[in-house]
Write a structure and sequence with these properties.
homodimer, alpha/beta, ornithine cyclodeaminase, domain 1, Rossmann fold, 8-stranded parallel beta sheet, 7-stranded mixed beta sheet, about 25% strand
C-alpha cells in the first residue's frame, strides 16, 4: 500500500486535468453506474467524523474517505478539518493507497465541481463574478472558474473588512480584478455568475435582489442546518440542479426550499444528466439557474484515482 | 501517522493481555459508554466491504475498521479476507495509526471474545471441549480457551477428514488432546463446552442432542443468512446471551431463533452486563447457556488500542 502525503499531493495537483475526470464521474453517478452507500457519521464531544465511500462500476478502485471537523482545533494551532482518502482494488479488496490529504482533495474537488456547474449553467457572457465568502473554498472556486469562464471581474462579499481585503489581495495575485462589498445585496444586483461558499446557517442572498439571467452555485450548505440562499431564489429559478437528487432531499439549499414549500423535488434535475445532455441546460441567457452542490462520493473517487495514477499507482 | 504492518502486529500480539481489555470494552458497550454507529456496507461484483467504527467515551481514540471478503481471491493466490484498522484522536480527529493487519486482529478479537464468554458462562467443571469447525477461527477459539478453562480434552467436528486431521495435529502441538468425529451429534452428546466456528448456512448442531449443563458459544454466524444452531437449542437454553442486543435483532443465531418463534428478544441478555454482574450468569451447572457472538466494534477498539500502545503509540 502506497502512502501519499499532503506535500506530494500538492505537487501532483497542478499537473492534473480534473474537470473532464470529474464530469465523467458526475455522469456515471447520474446514469446509475456508481454505488454510493449512505454516509457514515459519528458525533464526538469535540467534533464529528464522516465516512463517504463508493465506486464507479467497471473502474479499478473503490474509495473510502474519512473526513473530520474538530472545532476546538484552532485553539490548539491545528486546522479544524482533517481527512484522508483510501483506494482499494475492486477486484481483490486489497488496499492500494492512502492519500493523507488532510481535507485538501475535498476542497479541490468542490472547487472543480463549481467550475463544472458554471461551464454547463452560466449565461453565455459572464459580466461579473460574485463570490459570497472569503475562505479557502471561495478562493478555490474562483481559481477553477478561470478554466471555464472568460471573465476576471469579481465582486466579493464577506462579513468582515479584513477577510475581504486579504481575499482581494490573494485573488488579484491570481489575475482577477476584485472589488469588495459588505452589502450582500450587491452580489445579486451586479453579478450574473454567483458562487456562495460560506458555512452560514441563515440565508445571505435574498430573492428580492435577484436579477434575470443569473446563475448561482451554492457549495457551502452541506448539512441539514446550513443555508445560504433565500428559498425565494429557488422558487424564481427556471432551472434547479443538484449534484445528487437523493442527497438534496436531506440537506442543502434544495432541501431548505422544499421544506419551505417553495419548490418541489420533482422539478430538480441532476448535474450529471445536464453534463450528458440527458436533461436540458438553460435555453436562454435570461433564465435564472441554481446549482446546489452538497458533495458526492463519486467526486472523491475521481480525484483520488487521478492523484494516485499521477503518483505512479 | 504510524503505519503498523501485519508482521509487526504478529510480534506484538503474544505479549498482550487482551482478555481484561476486551472485557472492559464489552462492559462499556453494555453500559452505553460507547458509540457504535450502524455498520457501513458496500457490495461489489467480486466481494463485499464492511466499515465498522466507533469509540468508547473518555478514551483516547476512535477506531474505523475496513474489512473485505473477495471470494475469487483464492484462485489468485490471495486470502479472501482483508482488513485494516485505523486509530484517530478523539480530541482532534488526527489520524494516529493505521494497522495493516489484513483481518488478523478481527480473527484474534473474536477468539478473545469466545474465551470471555466461556469464562463467564461455562459450567464450573469442563469435561471436554467440543469444537465445530476446523478453520482459523476454530484454532483461535481453542487457543484462547487455554487462558480460562482447565481442560485439554477436545472433540472436533469438521466436514472432511483431511481438515480434521490437520486441525488435530495443530492443536495437539498446542498441548490439547484432540479426538475427531464426522458425526456432529457427538459434539453435544459428549462435550459440556462447545464452540461453533463455521460459515454454515444451516444448523449443524441439533436440539435433540443437547444435554443439560452445556454451554455453547456460536461465533460463525455474522450475517443474516448464516446459522449453526438449531433454534430448538436456544429454546431449551436457560440463558441466551448476545454480545450486542441490537445486532442480534438482525443477524446471528438469536435472530434465527426469534424468527422461528423459538425465543423472544426480551429474554436475551448482553455479555457486557453478565461481565459487570448487572445480569445474572448461570446459577447451576445443570443449566444450558448459549452465547451468540456476531462481533461489535468495541472489540476492534479494544484490540487496536492495545496493539498501538504496545507499538509505542
Amino acid at each position: 500500500m502506497k502512502v501519499i502525503t499532503r506535500e506530494q499531493i500538492q505537487r501532483i495537483l497542478p499537473g492534473l486535468d480534473l474537470l473532464p475526470e470529474m464530469e465523467r464521474a458526475f455522469v456515471a453517478y447520474s446514469q446509475g453506474n456508481s454505488v454510493v452507500p449512505p454516509v457514515g457519521e459519528m458525533i464526538l464531544d469535540r467534533g464529528e467524523v464522516h465516512i463517504k465511500y463508493g465506486f464507479i462500476r467497471e473502474e479499478e478502485f473503490y474509495v473510502i474517505k474519512i473526513a473530520s471537523g474538530f472545532y476546538g482545533n484552532r485553539a490548539l494551532g491545528l486546522p479544524s478539518g482533517n481527512g484522508m482518502m483510501m483506494l482499494f482494488s475492486q477486484k481483490t479488496g486489497e488496499p492500494e493507497a492512502i492519500l493523507l490529504d488532510e481535507g485538501l482533495l475535498t476542497d479541490v474537488r468542490t472547487g472543480v465541481a463549481g467550475a463544472i456547474a458554471a461551464r454547463h449553467l452560466a449565461p453565455s457572457r459572464v459580466e461579473q463574478i460574485g463570490i459570497v465568502g472569503t475562505g479557502t473554498q471561495a478562493r478555490l472556486q474562483l481559481s477553477f472558474l478561470k478554466q471555464v469562464v472568460d471573465c476576471n471581474r469579481v465582486l466579493a462579499w464577506g462579513p468582515n473588512p479584513a477577510g475581504l481585503e486579504r481575499f482581494r489581495r490573494e485573488m488579484e495575485a491570481e489575475g482577477f480584478h476584485v472589488r469588495t462589498t459588505l452589502d450582500s445585496a450587491e452580489i445579486l444586483k451586479r453579478c450574473n455568475l454567483v458562487i456562495t461558499a460560506t458555512p452560514s446557517r441563515k440565508p445571505i442572498l435574498r430573492g428580492r435582489d435577484l436579477v434575470k439571467g443569473t446563475h448561482i452555485t451554492a457549495v457551502g450548505s452541506d448539512t441539514p442546518g446550513k443555508q445560504e440562499l433565500d428559498p425565494q431564489i429557488l422558487h424564481r429559478s427556471d432551472l434547479v440542479v443538484a449534484d445528487s437528487l437523493s442527497q438534496c432531499r436531506e440537506r442543502g439549499e434544495i432541501y431548505q426550499a422544499c421544506r419551505a414549500g417553495m419548490i418541489h423535488h420533482e422539478q430538480v434535475i441532476e448535474l450529471g444528466a445536464v453534463i450528458s445532455g440527458k436533461e436540458r441546460s438553460r435555453s436562454s441567457d435570461d433564465q435564472v439557474s441554481v446549482a446546489d452542490l452538497t458533495g458526492v462520493a463519486v467526486q472523491d473517487i475521481a480525484i483520488a484515482t487521478a492523484v494516485f495514477r499521477a503518483a505512479g499507482g
